[in-house]
């Protein structure tokens, strides 16, 4: 029987009650990991954990904006499993689409607190736990195509994702000395519940919009594809990959669609 890719590893996943986080919790558990699924959506989180199996996944409430809750969550993980091998810092919010002329700075602050400050707190306490337990672990953050280019999301969201990519690279520079890898994943548009609520669209409408603007045709990007990228970075298959931003966008961020001279000529 083939060894599971995360056999014997303990993974903490934030934003795990839906979307990319939920798919990752399921995939990590399927591949042998013991998962602590973290979110603020308690009812959804409990349902996800129960549907996977309490012997594989435990739900724990945590608002990543509150460092005390982050610290308590890490303590809970260590008390339950003895160590942590993988942090997938995936929790995030989009905020509302508004002009820079009408930017709500309170909402901007909340987006930054969730997407960048929350990730920083998670990385801080996960790294401490890994070093204390002498674990050469893997830390992964969900960024976005908005970490590379502007105009693909709200101003606060784009700002936070640029900052998060900087944090990943900065943390990588320090934590490599302890054998800890730090990477990020930048997805293109995925029809998660978060995105559907933000744009007030049904999943098929979000997917249709993404496909219309996509460079790579014939594939609909799903949350499971991002979970598979996270699984790779979490596993020993990526043992010497650190400081990398794995862009899962079908070439979206490297193609100037307004001046593409290679329009399809064969049908």
Keywords:
single chain; 267 residues; alpha/beta; Rossmann fold; seven-stranded parallel β-sheet; 8 helices; globular
SSE inventory with pairings:
Layout: E1 10-14, H1 19-30, E2 34-39, H2 42-52, E3 57-61, H3 67-81, E4 86-89, H4 105-132, E5 138-142, H5 155-175, E6 181-187, H6 193-199, H7 203-213, H8 223-234, E7 245-248
Parallel strand pairs: 1-2, 1-4, 2-3, 4-5, 5-6, 6-7
Structural notes for this entry:
Belongs to the short-chain dehydrogenases/reductases (SDR) family. InterPro entries: NAD(P)-bd_dom_sf, SDR_fam. This protein has a single domain, classed as NAD(P)-binding Rossmann-like Domain (Rossmann fold, 3-Layer(aba) Sandwich). Helix 4 (105-132) runs parallel beside helix 5 (155-175). It has helices at 19-30, 42-52, 67-81, 105-132, 155-175, 193-199, 203-213, 223-234, and strands spanning 10-14, 34-39, 57-61, 86-89, 138-142, 181-187, 245-248. It has a seven-stranded parallel sheet, sandwiched between helices. It is built from eight helices and seven strands. The protein starts with 9 loop residues before the first strand and ends in a 19-residue tail after the last strand. It is globular, with a radius of gyration of 18 Å.
């Amino acid at each position: 029987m083939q060894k599971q890719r995360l056999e014997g590893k303990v993974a903490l996943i934030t934003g795990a009650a839906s979307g990319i986080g939920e798919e990752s919790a399921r995939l990590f558990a399927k591949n042998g990991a013991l998962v602590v699924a973290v979110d603020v959506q308690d009812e959804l989180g409990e349902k996800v954990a129960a549907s996977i199996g309490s012997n594989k996944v435990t739900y724990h409430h945590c608002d990543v904006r509150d460092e005390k809750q982050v610290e308590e969550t890490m303590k809970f993980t260590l008390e339950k499993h003895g160590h942590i091998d993988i942090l997938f810092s995936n929790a995030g919010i989009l905020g509302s689409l508004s002009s820079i002329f009408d930017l709500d700075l309170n909402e901007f602050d909340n987006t930054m607190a969730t997407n960048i400050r929350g990730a920083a707190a998670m990385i801080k306490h996960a790294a401490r736990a890994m070093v204390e337990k002498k674990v050469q672990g893997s830390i992964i953050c969900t960024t976005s195509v908005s970490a590379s280019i502007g105009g693909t999301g709200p101003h606060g969201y784009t700002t936070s994702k640029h900052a998060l990519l900087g944090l990943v690279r900065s943390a990588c520079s320090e934590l490599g000395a302890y054998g800890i890898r730090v990477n990020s994943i930048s997805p293109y548009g995925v029809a998660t519940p978060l995105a559907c609520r933000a744009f007030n669209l049904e999943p098929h409408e979000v997917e249709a919009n993404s496909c219309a603007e996509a460079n790579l045709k014939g594939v609909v990007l799903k949350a499971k594809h991002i979970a598979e990228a996270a699984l790779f970075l979490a596993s020993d298959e990526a043992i010497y990959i650190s400081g990398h931003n794995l862009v899962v966008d079908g070439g979206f961020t490297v193609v100037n669609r307004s001046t593409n001279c290679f329009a399809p000529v064969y049908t």
